[in-house]
Amino acid sequence: MADLFTVTAPLVIKSPHGGEKAIAEIFQQEKGIVFFEIFWNHLAGYQGIHFIPGDIKGEGPWKVGDYILNVLGCHASNAELAEDYAQWQMYLQAPLNDYPDMAGIEAILHKFIVSK
User: Fold this and answer.
1) What's the CA gap between 60 and 98, in Å, rounded?
2) Which end of the chain has fewer CB atoms surrounding its CB within 10 Å, N or C?
3) Backbone angles phi, psi at 50, to 5 degrees
4) What is the DSSP letter of 18?
5) Residue 96: phi, psi to the nearest 5?
6) 73 exposed, middle or buried (CB, 10 Å; 0-12, 13-18, 19+)?
7) Domain ranges for the chain
8) For residue 63, what is the enclosing H or E element?
9) At 29, which helix (H) or strand (E)?
């Protein structure tokens, strides 16, 4: 069984309304998941951070509520999203990027959860 939280390949989440987002960070919560979309740190407030309620089901693809998570590139994931993810990787590898470390991300996660 593939554990959603140990997969090292890039992930994409598809909403029940058809939109897809590449995932930068994902965290298990008591009643679902919280994910940070790529470039979340360039959006105002918590726009790029999302809570999805529901149990985690599956071994890849996974389902949380009405959302489906998959490895980016599997099952005909769109090329545009793959290109966006490639841009995200280049940003992360840039020597002077402003991406927070894991302690900073966890602090933002905590503030996001408290705000809900």
Assistant:
1) 31
2) N
3) -135, 140
4) S
5) -115, 35
6) middle
7) 11-95
8) strand 62-64
9) strand 20-29
Rg (CA), the chain: 14
* Chain position carrying tokens 């939280």: 5
pLDDT tens, 35-56?
A: 999 999 999 999 999 999 999 9
Cα separation, 66 vs 16, whole angstroms: 6
- Beta-carbon-side half-sphere exposure of residue 115 (alpha carbons within 13 Å): 13
- Residues 60, 51 contacting (CB under 8 angstroms): no
Q: Please state the φ and ψ torsions of residue 86, each to the nearest 5 degrees.
A: -60, -40
Residue 104: C-alpha distances to residues 68, 101, 111 (Å): 27, 5, 11
